[in-house]
Queue: 2 jobs
Job 1
Amino acid sequence: MSARDKTPKHAAVKVDLHCHSHCSDGKHSIDFLAQQASDNGVTHLAITDHDYVHTAFATSTTQGVTLINGVEISCDWHNLELHVVGLLVDPACDALQNLLVSQQSKRRERMTAMDGLLTERGIPGLMQSLGELPAVSLSRSHVADFLVTTGASKTRQKAFKQFLGKKGKVAVAPDWCSMHSAIEAIHAAGGIAILAHPGRYPVNRRRLTLLVEEFKTSGGDALECAYPNIAVDMQQALVTLARDHQLYLSAGSDFHDAGAKWTDIGKFPSISVNDEALAVWHHPRWISEFGHAVGMSAQAV
Ligand code: AMP
Ligand code: MN
Ligand code: MN
Ligand code: MN
C-alpha cells in the first residue's frame, strides 16, 4: 500500500487558484468572490491580485470557503511580458512587499504617462477617475473602462486595440521586474511560484520550452495548465513540459468580473485524473498548510 493510499478520506475539495478582486483590476470585493465561490462549490479560492497581496487574511475561511493569499506578479523575460502567480505567500514578508510596492509605483507612473497622452488627445481626467476606485494596483484594464465610460472607445477590446496595445495611441512600455526576481520574492514569502497561463504568451512552442526551462532553473515550481479557453493540445503540451521539468500543475479561472458572462469562479477545464498526481496540492508547501489532499478536484462548474 502506498503512502497516499493510507491517507484518510476527507470531504471533496474543489480549488480555484487564480482570481482578481477590486484591489487590482477585478470588479468585486473579497466577500463577493467568497460568496460566488461558495455558490459554485469551490472550497479553496486563491486571491491573486496583480502586484498586490491582501494583508487582511493569511488563509482564512469566509462563507465556508478557504481563502488563500496569493499574488500575480507582472514580469519581464527577454522582453516578453509574463505573469507569475505566487500561492500561499506571507503578506508580512519585506522582500515581497518591497517588490510589490515598486511594481505598484511603476504602474502609477505608467498611468500618469497615459493620462498625459490622453489629455493631449482631448481626453482628460484619467488620474482623477482612477482615484475614485478601490484599486491599489492600477492597470490598463482600468484605462480601458475609462475610455468606454468617456465614449472614446465603444468596447474594452477596442480600447486595447486602438489605445492601449503595444502599437496603441497612448501605449507606454512597462518596466516590470525580472521573472527571476518575481520567483525569488515569492519564495522569500514562503510561497509556491506558478507560471500563469503559459499558452497565452505570443511565443512558438520552441520558445515556450525555453521559457519553461528558464522558469525551472530560476526556481519556479508549477505551470498553470487548466484555465479558461486553453486548447486541448496546449494543455497536453504543458502537462508534458511539467513532467519533463519536474514542475507541478495548477488551475484557476483568472476571474475578474461577473459581468463577463463567459468566466466564473471555479470554471475552467479540469486537470485530468492521469495527471492529478502532479497537481500543486501535492506540493510540500500546500501539504504543510492543508494536509494531504484527497478527493481534490479542479473542474468546470
Ligand atoms: P497591465 O497589467 O496594466 O498591463 O494590464 C493588463 C490587464 O488588462 C490584464 O490583467 C487583463 O486583465 C487586461 N487585458 C489585457 N489585455 C486585454 C485585452 N486585449 N482585452 C481585455 N482586457 C485585457
Ligand atoms: Mn487582469
Ligand atoms: Mn495574467
Ligand atoms: Mn490573472
Job 2
Amino acid sequence: APAIRLEDYSPAPYTIEAVALDMQLAPKATQVHARLTIRRLTDTLPGTPLVLDGGGLELTSLSVNGVAIPVESYTVTPDKLELLSPPSEPFELEIGTRIDPDANTQLEGLYRSSGTYCTQCEAEGFRRITYFLDRPDVLAVYTTRIEARKSEAPILLGNGNPVESGPVPDKPERHFAIWHDPHPKPSYLFAMVAGDLAHVADSFTTRSGRNVDLKIYVEHGREDKCDWAMDSLKRSMRWDEEVFGCEYDLDVFNIVAVSDFNMGAMENKGLNIFNDKYVLADQDTATDQDYANIEAVIAHEYFHNWTGNRITCRDWFQLCLKEGLTVFRDQEFSSDMRSRAVKRISDVRLLKSHQFPEDAGPLAHPVRPRKYTEINNFYTATVYEKGAEVVRMLKTLVGADGFKAGTDLYFQRHDGEATTIEAFLACFAEVSGQDLSHFALWYEQAGTPLVEVESSYDATAQSLTLQISQEIAPLPGQADSKPAVIPIRFGLIGSDGADMSFDKVEGAEVRQDCLILSQRRQTVRFSGVSERPALSLLRGFSAPVKLHAPEKDQDLAFRAAHDSDPFNRWQASQTLATQSLLRLVRAAEAGEELVADSVVLDVFGSILSDGSLDPAFRALSLQLPGEADLAREIGKNVDPTAVLKARDALRAALGSTHMDLLRAALSQRESGPFDPGAEAAGKRALANQALAYFAASDASDAALIVNDLFDRADNMTDRLAALTLLVHGDLPGAQAALEAFRNRHETSSLALDKWFMVQATAPLSSTLETVRDLAGHRLFDENNPNRVRSLVHAFATGNPSQFGRPDGAGFSFVADHVLALDARNPQVAARLLTCFRSWRAYEAQRSSHAEAALQRISEAENLSRDSRDIVDRCLQ
Ligand code: B3K
Ligand code: ZN
C-alpha cells in the first residue's frame, strides 16, 4: 500500500453539507440509503470528477437530483465510487448500498455485538456503510432514520437529538426512529445502535440551564453495574464547565456498552459507544483499577465533545490535536478527583512502560507523524500519552493563566472547524507573546531525548555548576536529532531536607522553579548556594525525557525521604531500586549469589512504616520496577530470565527483612462497607502490596494467609490480588483458587477475563502450556477482543520471561495467533503484533527466534495492510 504523506494534504474538491441516511437493518443484508447534499468548492473546476471512498461495499442504486444516472457516467468498485462529471451546481447524490453486519468480524463499520447492531467509524469505518468523502475535514449535518424489527431491536439510537419514532406503516413487525444532529461533523463521528438493551437514566443541568437526559445502555441484567459510570459522567460534565469552560450542547447524551469492541471507547457525537470493560463495575467484579479506568475513559470520551468533535482534525496526521489534548484533560480531571501526586506517578509509569519503548524502537514516530500506510496503527502511546505530555509542557511554558487564555481562544476561534497543530499552538503563542516555533519540534521529532547532567559544587565560590547535554539516539528514518526546548522543574535540597535558595543562574533561562533547556550542550551555573545540595531534577516529570544524573545510593535514599516534590520522592526510591536490581541482574547473569543492597531494604522499610504518607503513594513507592522496565533500562542483550531472578530475589529479601512490619500492615486491612473511592482504594493497594511481599518472604504461614484472604475477600481487588499471588508464586492452593474463581464468575465475562489474564501472566515455565490449553478452553472466544487481549496479549506483554523463553516457543505461539486473528480482525492482530517491537534488545539467541517469528508473519499470504505495516517496520 502506498504511504500517505502530510505534505500531500489538499482539501477535497467537493464538500458534503448534509447527509440523510436511511438504514433498514437486517442481520445479513442491511440496506443503506444515503442522500448527500454536495457542493463543488469555488476553487474546483466544473466537471472535476468526484471520488468517494468505499470499503467492501455493494452498490444497489445511484441517482443525481432524483434521476438514476447512466452507467457510463460513473465507475464503481467495492472500495471506490467515481462520478466522472458531476453537476457544477449543488446537487443531491443518492446512494444505495447493501452490507452484511453479521459477516463483519473486523468490528469496523456496522457490525453486531451479542446481537446488538453498532458502529465504529473512526478512523475510516464510515466508508464501509456508504460511499463518502471519508475524511475528517468534510463536515456535514446528519439526519439518520433507523428501521428494524421491533422484537430484534426495540432500542434505536443515533447521533444528536431524537426527532421522531413509531411503527412503520404496513409493516407491523418493524419500527423506526429519526435522529438529527445539528452540529456539523466528520463522518468518523457518525454512530448508530440498535438492539434489545436495558438502560439507566439520569439528568444533568448545564451551567446555562440546559437540561440533558443522560442514559447508559447495557445488556439486560447489567443495569446495576452502571452507577459508577453515570456518576463519573456527571462529574466530568461539571468539571469541564468549571475548568475549561466547556458546556454540553445537545438535549441527550447516550452511552452504549458493548462486549465486542476493538479499543476502549468512541466519542461519537451524543452517542458514545464503549467497550463494556470501561462502563460496568461493581464490588464483586471490578478492581479499583477498573473503577479508576472507567472514571478516566468516561471523562476522556465526554471531553472529546469539545476537543475532537466541536473542533476536529483537518487530517489524520493531526490526530494528536484531539487525542493528546483530551488525554491531558482526562489526566487533569482524574488528578482533581483523586490524589494529584499518585495520578502523576501512575501516568508516568504508563508513559515509560508503553511509550518509551515505542519511541526507542522500529515503530518510533513523531507525535504528529509525517506518513502512514494504515492510520489505525497510529492510535499509539506516542500520539496519546506523549501527545498529552507535550500539552503539559506547553502549560508549564506559558503558565497556568496563559494556558487558560490559550484554550479559551482555541475554543472560540476554531469552534466548528477541522484544524491543525499549527493553529492550536498559534493560540498559545498569541496570548502569551511567546515564540513557540522551537517548541513545535516536540510534534515533529521522534525519540525520547536523553538528558545527561553532571554537577559539581564549589564550596569556596558557593556555586553549583551543571553540565547538561541532550541527545536522541538514531532511529529508523531519523539519523540525527535537533535539541528541543525542555522544561526541567528542579530544586536544590539542603542537608536539613528543605529546598535552598540561590542568588542567580547563568547559562540557561530559569522561570520560577523551572530551568528551560534549548541547546545540545549547556553549562548552567548557580551562585549563592550555601552548601552542596542534593539535586532534585525533573520534578513532576516536567518533560518526557530520560534523565541521567549520576547519584549515589545514599543521596537517592536521602531524597526518597526528603524531596518536597512527591513525584521525585517516588522517583528517587524507584531509581534506587532500579540501580540495585541492575546489579542483581548482572550477578544473576554471572551465576553469582544474589544479595540485596541494604540501603534499598532500609528505604523500603521506612516507606512501609511511615504512616504520615498517603497509603496510595506508599503502595506505589513500594512497587518495584517491572521486569519490562528493567529490560528497558538494560537496553541491549537482555536476558529476561536473569531479570526475573533478580526481581524475585529482591522481593524475597524485602519480604523476609520486613516480615514484622508487613504483618502489622496486613492486620490493618479495613473492613466495613465497600467504598470505590480513591482513599479506600489506596488503603487496599497498600495492604495488597504488603501481602505481595509477605507472600514472597520465607514466612512459613505465607501461603496460608494468602489463601485465607482469597477466601474472605469481599471485593474483586482483594480477591484478584490474592489469586495473583497464589498463581504467580505457584503456592499451594493456587489450582483450587482458580477453580473457585471461575465458578464464581462464570457468567461475568469481564471477571472471567481476569481469570485468563492471571494465568497468562504467571512467570512459570509451565505457563506457555497453560496458555495453549486456555486458548482451546470452552470459555475462550477468539472473536472477542477483550478475551484475546486477556490471554494472548497479556501473555505477550505482561509476561516477559515466558513470552521471551529462550527456546522461542513463546514468540512462535504469539505469531500463530497474530496470523489466525489477522484474517478476521486486522486491527486487533496488528496491535498484538506490536509486542515484538523490542525484539532487537534481546540477547542473540532470543532475538534470532523473535526475528524468525516475524519473518514467518511477513511471509504469510494475504496479510492485512494493518499487520503488513507493523511487521515491515519491525523488520526494517
Ligand atoms: N477516538 C477513539 C479511538 C479510535 C480508534 C480507531 N482505531 C477513542 C478515543 O481516543 O477516545
Ligand atoms: Zn480519545
